[in-house]
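Please review this one:
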Amino acid sequence: MFSGIVEEVGRIHSFSPSSGHLAISAQRVLSGEDGLRISDSVSVSGACLTVTSLEATRFHVDVTPETQRATWFSELHPGAHVNLERALRFGSVVGGHLVQGHIEGLGNVTDIRYDGDAKLVTVRCAGTISRYIVEKGFVAVEGVSLTAFDWSPDRFTFTLIPYTAIHTTLGVLKVGDTVNIETDQTGKYIERFVMSQER
């Protein structure tokens, strides 16, 4: 479980789509007593992956075929940047919202415009995703906890403040870019419960 508050932007060292082996260069998530350990969960641009080995300045994970299909990770290449967050520990402050790291699908950036110092970013997505996004509700884009607004059945908009733009990969988004999306899971549980009661 994660909070959607990115700790650092890592850099892809190497990736083999056929084997799924991914090596990521990082600093902050590897340092200190709470640094990543083998078997730890780590959010990589929103996808929960398991650390398989460690080096001084990089860590390794495996990306399954299912994760490659659900994300844009098949396009990863050396030098690409990804958002990183270590898993929450009991008692941790949740600055964003509870994020599982289970990418539900992809969205495409259709519009970026300025609103003062902030950017308004509009993302088009499938109805199977947008049905679980509500006005002023939580949504995780590239692993970043955000608030959705200006919702419609096939798109939503979020505000990107300067701090988040600087400290995550969202700051370099362009129209046409593909992003990983995870909605707030609460709506799905409620829907499943209601549907089971109607049977």
Observations:
- The radius of gyration is 17 Å.
- DSSP finds four helices and twelve strands in the chain.
- The longest strand covers residues 105-115.
- The CA atoms of residues 166 and 172 lie 9 Å apart.
